[in-house]
Amino acid sequence: MSVACEVWFTFSWILDQVPKIHPVNRATDLQALHDKFDMPSPSNPTGRSDLPGVDMFVSTADPEKEPPLVTANTILSILSVDYPVEKVACYISDDGGALLTFEAMAEAASFADLWVPFCRKHDIEPRNPESYFSIKTDPTKNKGRSDFVKDRRKIKREYDEFKVRINALPDSIRRRSDAFNAREEMKMIKHLRESGADPLEPIKVQKATWMADGTHWPGTWAVSAPDHAKGDHSGILQVMLKPPSCDPVMGNSEDGLIDYSDVDIRLSMFVYVSREKRPGYDHNKKAGAMNALVRASAVLSNGPFMLNLDCDHYIHNCKAVREGMCFVMDRGGEDICYVQFPQRFEGIDPSDRYASRNTVFFDGNMRALDGVQVGFPSKCF
Ligand SMILES: O=c1ccn([C@@H]2O[C@H](COP(=O)(O)OP(=O)(O)O[C@H]3O[C@H](CO)[C@@H](O)[C@H](O)[C@H]3O)[C@@H](O)[C@H]2O)c(=O)[nH]1
Ligand SMILES: [Mn+2]
């Protein structure tokens, strides 16, 4: 028996080792992509980018467990990605149906006005502000423009204020709702008095969650009510940033905090989606959210490519989408349908004691299997 086992282990060891003789290293050629898609040609005389559209989906489920600031950073890293602005559409799915997430996304959309052109002007990397401001290396390294230090200082201050605003949202929503609810209660009392009802009878007013414009939030309420509970609310779709024009729009030096006179200040479309939920239906968690996003995006932007991120992911290489296109738009790209990439954790532990970076898996096995042209199955959302 033990001999049989040894033979089997030897055999499987050989199977594991043989591919490693011929690992494949793939490299992207961004210049070739640029020449092919971003240059004027007889069929495209203006030289408008011919790259395909990409719809980027981010899912979030609960603003208590998944801090809105983290989600906002994910969105900012997507909006500032280095890809034709009009070809990117960003969608956030909020399975919590929470006004907090909605307002945090509105804040992110307005901060993007400053952040995205700043990234473009000074070639910032990574484009998630939280990570960018926490890197320890010298920020002025490789920065050519003389106004970089001044701009960075201004943006840093604005980001700090943005954080304060995001963190103050739960409180401001609560205070606002309390005020509106108190007003409703007064109205109700007045109405009852006028209609001659018994003044001693206790009145019951449903405590609603209110938007800043004085209307009821259609999603979940702090005090849950029918039609406004976690698994029971209507669908919400709000375009937070409209689709941009096809041609660049340069900023100017006069108004605004920073001189963006030679920087494209357009922002990609950004949409908030919270799918309808009703009791008695299985909502299928993230997969269900993805279904809703695919349907909403099919109507709004219908990008031929979709990228799906969790709310705690971010794009840490602003050229990543272009690099991806090098694979899918190259010969053989039409054979690629669905790519799932496992999470690779960086910066967890400087000595990486627990191999969280999965070096053997990513830099060894994956390249080796690529060499023998084997993909392998993995779990899906
Ligand atoms: O009802 C839900 C539940 C979850 N999510 C989102 O789904 C993502 C992943 O959920 P999480 O609980 O964070 O799972 P993890 O184990 O951290 O995520 C890994 O494992 C999941 C299950 O395989 C994959 O879906 C994820 O992409 C992968 O990152 C998050 O963005 C959630 O906000 C929803 O949108 N709706
Ligand atoms: Mn997660």
Automatic annotation (TrEMBL):
InterPro entries named in the record: Cellulose_synth, Nucleotide-diphossugar_trans
GO MF, any single term: cellulose synthase (UDP-forming) activity
Subcellular localization, as worded in the UniProt entry: Endomembrane system
Any GO BP annotation: cellulose biosynthetic process
Pfam families linked to this entry: Cellulose_synt (PF03552)
Binding annotation for UDP-alpha-D-glucose: S59, K65, E66, D95, K285
One GO cellular component, as annotated: endomembrane system
Residues holding Mn(2+): K286, D310
Protein name: Uncharacterized protein
Organism: Trapa incisa
